[in-house]
Write a sequence for this structure.
């Protein structure tokens, strides 16, 4: 792996400084009623008065060990379709490397719970593979077809009376969400796109459900309260979110599965929506329920589900965003519903290790599969050690001798932070905030990482995280 020339812009550094500046603030949530758009002047009459529903569903990862994110998104698609949302109005981003993956014990099928039905069948391949990227996601949300590169050309072509639902499931870190392609998705950029969408007057209200580690950091202090946007996140700005239905969990998986099938916050809202009449259940009622389930039954796991933006919108019924399944028309919302708390779940960041470890344990003694799994466990572990140690060392070098850097300079010398390493974004931001210059970060990264490790986790072939 050859060294890569580093080019870092001042604005990049400024971004990290702003990231740190907001991370300490806690947004105060109003319970005031939402302010709606004034009717657009040149309403061409195409929008039904009740408004159309639109949805954007995003699985931000790839790889079989991340099975659960694409399973979550497929499940969300089925849920919306059963609710009556039109296929043309649901835009799906998924890498699409799970159903036909050689590790998948049920070829062509994806499930999102131990006894769940196939959720893959019929899911449109709007944006798959390398087309799952930040540029296309923003173009889709903004309804800008000319900005698209590849994919089905489906965009959110919404009008002023419409309701938009965005659901995203992936890894994250402070101020950042993963993508299976480079670059990752940054909180500032995402909030800017939401502001632009609002300014274009092409929705009445928008709901954003976000599953990722540190997902609260994407909206905390960044999402204004006057955009008619209500967001909930799987975790606060400083904690992990949790995978569920993992090998070794209770309830147990079919034994042939060696990977987590879902994420806790995600299956909590979807299993709730699956069984209720969404004409009678409000966003707020769902929030309370999901919060309770995602918090876990004791202190050993779980995360704090948060809400941001125009919290007044949460009194609206879910049907506006998700439709409702006619089969549930007689099921009214009841607070004490029967959602079962899982007894054990897996930290999102450890779900890859759980997969490799389970594969290792189940493979026959002496088999090639066992050797491969062992190699994967060791590679994943050594990548983590490398990232942890080099971030720490760089901090010491910079604060001890000089002061700091950028992610790109780090990655040029130390290899990709990857899905695990993005948890260190906050450390790197702190280093930036201390006013450290690029050349100093360069120097420190070079000293901390004389060579880029060769394992599959650290290669730069997928590009930089930032
Ligand atoms: C749509 O995207 C193109 C290409 O990126 C850009 O030039 C144009 O300004 C965008 N249009 C709108 C309305 O934002
Ligand atoms: C709901 O209840 C009504 C009245 O009892 C009944 O006619 C209808 O078939 C029920 N719907 C479902 C989906 O069970």
């Amino acid at each position: 792996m050859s060294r890569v020339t580093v080019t870092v812009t001042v604005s990049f550094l400024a971004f990290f400084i702003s990231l740190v500046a907001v991370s300490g603030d806690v947004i105060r949530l109003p319970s005031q009623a939402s302010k709606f758009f004034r009717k657009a002047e040149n309403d061409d009459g195409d929008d039904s008065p009740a408004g159309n529903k639109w949805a954007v569903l995003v699985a931000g990862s790839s790889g079989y060990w991340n099975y659960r994110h694409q399973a979550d998104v497929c499940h969300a698609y089925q849920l919306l379709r059963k609710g009556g949302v039109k296929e043309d109005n649901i835009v799906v981003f998924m890498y699409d490397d799970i159903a036909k993956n050689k590790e998948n014990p049920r070829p062509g099928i994806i499930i999102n719970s131990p006894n769940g039905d196939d959720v893959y069948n019929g899911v449109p391949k709007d944006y798959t593979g390398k087309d799952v990227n930040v540029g296309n996601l923003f173009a889709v949300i903004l309804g800008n077809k000319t900005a698209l590169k590849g994919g089905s050309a489906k965009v959110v072509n919404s009008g002023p009376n419409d309701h938009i639902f965005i659901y995203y499931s992936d890894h994250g870190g402070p101020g950042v969400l993963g993508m299976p392609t480079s670059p990752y998705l940054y909180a500032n950029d995402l909030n800017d796109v939401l502001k632009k969408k609002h300014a274009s007057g092409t929705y009445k209200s928008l709901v954003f459900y976000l599953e990722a580690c540190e997902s609260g950091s994407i909206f905390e202090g960044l999402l204004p309260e006057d955009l008619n946007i209500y967001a909930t996140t799987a975790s606060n700005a400083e904690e992990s979110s949790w995978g569920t239905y993992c090998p070794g969990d209770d309830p147990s998986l079919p034994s042939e599965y060696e990977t987590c099938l879902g994420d806790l916050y995600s299956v909590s809202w979807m299993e709730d929506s699956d069984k209720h009449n969404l004409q009678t259940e409000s966003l707020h009622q769902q929030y309370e329920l999901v919060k309770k389930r995602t918090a876990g039954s004791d202190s050993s796991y779980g995360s704090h589900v948060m809400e941001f933006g125009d919290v007044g919108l949460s009194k609206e019924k879910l049907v506006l965003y998700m439709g409702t399944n006619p089969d549930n028309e007689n099921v009214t919302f009841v607070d004490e519903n029967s959602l079962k708390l899982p007894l054990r779940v897996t930290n999102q960041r450890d779900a890859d290790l759980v997969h490799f470890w389970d594969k290792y344990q189940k493979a026959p003694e002496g088999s090639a599969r066992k050797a491969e799994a062992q190699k994967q466990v060791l590679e994943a572990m050594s990548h983590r050690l490398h990232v942890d140690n080099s971030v720490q060392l760089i901090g010491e070098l910079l604060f001890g001798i000089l002061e700091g850097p950028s992610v790109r300079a780090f990655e040029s010398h130390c290899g990709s932070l990857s899905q695990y390493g993005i948890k260190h974004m906050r450390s790197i931001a702190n280093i930036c905030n201390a006013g450290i210059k690029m050349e100093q970060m360069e120097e420190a990264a070079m000293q901390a990482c004389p060579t880029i490790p060769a394992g599959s986790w650290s290669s730069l072939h997928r590009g930089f995280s930032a």
In short: Residues 327, 329-330 surround 2-acetamido-2-deoxy-beta-D-glucopyranose (ligand 2) (CB under 6 Å). The chain has three domains: 3-41, 52-348, 363-458.
